[in-house]
Amino acid sequence: MSAEPARTGVVGLGLIGGSLALRLTAQGHPVLGTDPDPSTRAAAVGAGLAVEDGLGPWLAACDLVAVCAPLDVLSEILHRVAGLTDDRTTVIDVGSVKAPVHRLARDAGLGGRFVGVHPMAGTERSGFQHASADLFDHATWAVTLEEGVTDATRAATVVRFLAERLDARVCVLTPALHDEAAAVVSHVPHVVAHLLLDGAEEFADPRVAALLAAGSFRDGTRVAGTNPARTRNMLAENHEAVGRELARLRQRLDRLATAVERGDRTELLTLLEGVAHRAGSVRHADADLLASDEVDAEAVLRLLGEPGSGVVVSPRRRG
Amino acid sequence: MSAEPARTGVVGLGLIGGSLALRLTAQGHPVLGTDPDPSTRAAAVGAGLAVEDGLGPWLAACDLVAVCAPLDVLSEILHRVAGLTDDRTTVIDVGSVKAPVHRLARDAGLGGRFVGVHPMAGTERSGFQHASADLFDHATWAVTLEEGVTDATRAATVVRFLAERLDARVCVLTPALHDEAAAVVSHVPHVVAHLLLDGAEEFADPRVAALLAAGSFRDGTRVAGTNPARTRNMLAENHEAVGRELARLRQRLDRLATAVERGDRTELLTLLEGVAHRAGSVRHADADLLASDEVDAEAVLRLLGEPGSGVVVSPRRRG
To answer: Which of B47, B33, B36 has the alpha carbon at shortest distance from B133?
Structure first.
């Protein structure tokens, strides 16, 4: 696969897989999908998708296969997809943790033809009934490749496909950097939302806490409404990076808590101002942009080595 | 003061004091205001408020005086207001921490005629230019009184006034309980927002963190945009309660971090599910409601002793 894929297979038609299939189908791009659940398959047919009954030889007719399944069944599916397809098919996944999936893909024998993908989109909900063609509007997608393993030409094709077909901003990075970043900007914030909510629940008078709850509390605990099993999986799958980031959080918390306990106004202001002064770098990051048609194997490998610059913006084209 | 106050004085016309004066004036309630800053006084006159040049004998003509000033000048102002008024005037403040203000009011000789007030409203902004008559729409107000010190009849009058003039939900509680609750639902969430933002800033590649930042991160760090000096003051003024709550947060964090580091999926799920199951008590607290005209000294003292039930809803009246 070096030009845009001619047909895409979607294995798993939940929130992410269903939305991907709906979006591509709406654009006239040929899609074949499947799901282990018969009622999901029926709903997908009802929504106008072309649906197969299960994994089969049809996968070999897809030059791109997106595996959109939970991590606990991913190993089995990747093995089956590897056996049903050959070198003409590139395989991607859409999970929120990347290093373990790259390992599974290697174990499944996919070698260089596996590319990791993670759409930074989603809702608290799941299932095809919540899927929609516009779920990914304005989303950033991470594309992960392992140097020395992943075929960079395939990765470049996936990047261009996401940028041009899904209007995606794409961030190219290694699985390890992705997982470290996800720990910082997603997994640890989920943990913290739970801890804050826990504090209010354990408060002597939770109804008073609820009555006085300010905007900072409502904002800070919003994602604590996520299904606990899903949050658990996210943390467990990325437990090394999350563990390291939680350790850093504990150090920062200790420093601030000590200043609070001492009522040390000078130290408190120093700590808070330091964060506020640097906030711009995170809140208003202005990444170097690359037009999608500037992306080839060489560009992908270069982006991988350049911190913060691995971004592609879709409809902008060279010239 | 036992009936509704006939005239209210507002000392300090910043975001809170200015909004209070604008709202009461818009309702035809007589208000006299002042501010140490001449340009603020001019802006207030321009907005149709009756403004005095400074503290003076006019305060004695107000049966309610709201001191809306930062804590660092509160002691001086409370002393001056105490000297310029007599037993006919009830004095309130609007600060976000209550126990220290009750101590200052006692030191100023206000005795039973001081009632603590805290509107659970506000924005990241400050100053009269951001004040508005609708800042307090749908807000809950805390009213704090010290048993054995505060005159419960005055507290009841303040509660009714807030409920009926400002359409406030009012939560009646002791200064200590208020400050503990504020630590849990406001001050610690501010700390945590800073810690999360700090984590992303210190990340090896902050631009990657910014690109991948998910909704959980944006929600969780929103209040980290607050002026650091104001956050510092909030934490320093309530440092005992905040310190205790941060210690509890550390314990919860340690428990969860240990489960993450061990990749202990069972323990992780137990911890996350426990929070999720109890979330309803905080997110959907259904307080007992009292109509504003049911509020007298006896009711106020009863509410003070009943956890979670100290709530008044405005326009609802008995019968």
So the answer is: B47
Chain B residue with the nearest C-alpha to that of A184: B200
Q: How far apart are CA A84 and CA A108, in angstroms?
A: 12
Check B140 against A212: CB less than 8 A apart.
yes
A-chain CB neighbours of B173 within 8 Å are 208
Q: Chain B partners of A184 at a C-beta cutoff of 8 Å?
A: 199-200, 203, 209
Chain A environment of B125 (Cβ under 8 Å): none
- Locate B264 and state its tokens: 């202990």
For residue range A178-236, list pLDDT tens digits in order.
999 999 998 999 899 889 988 888 887 777 888 888 677 877 787 777 778 888 988 99
H or E element at residue A140: strand A140-144
Instruction: Give, for A22, the enclosing helix (H) or strand (E).
Output: helix A15-26
Phi then psi for residue B83, to 5 deg, are -70, -30
Sort B283 into a burial class: Cβ within 10 Å, 0-12 / 13-18 / 19+.
Answer: middle
What is the distance in angstroms between the Cα of B95 and the nearest Cα belonging to chain A? Answer: 14
CA atoms within 13 A on the CB side of B253: 26
Task: Give the model confidence (pLDDT) of B46-77 as tens digits.
Answer: 999 999 999 999 999 999 999 999 888 999 99
CA distance A212 to B161: 19
Q: Which of B201, B203, B222 sits opposite A219 (nearest CB)?
A: B222
Closest CA–CA distance from residue B245 to any residue of chain A (Å): 8
Contact between chains at B206 and A281 (C-beta distance less than 8 A)? yes
The residue whose two tokens read 């200043």 is A259
Q: What is the pLDDT of residues A247-267, one digit of tens each?
A: 999 999 999 999 999 999 999
* Cβ atoms of residues A199 and B184 within 8 Å: yes
pTM of the predicted model as reported, rounded to 2 decimal places: 0.84
The number of beta carbons lying within 10 Å of the beta carbon of residue A27 is 12
Query: What are the two backbone dihedrals, phi and then psi, of residue B8, each rounded to the nearest 5 degrees?
Result: -115, 135
Facing residues of B66 across strands? B10, B92
Q: Is the dihedral of CA B224, B227, B228, B233 positive or negative?
A: negative
- What are A209's strand-pairing partners? none
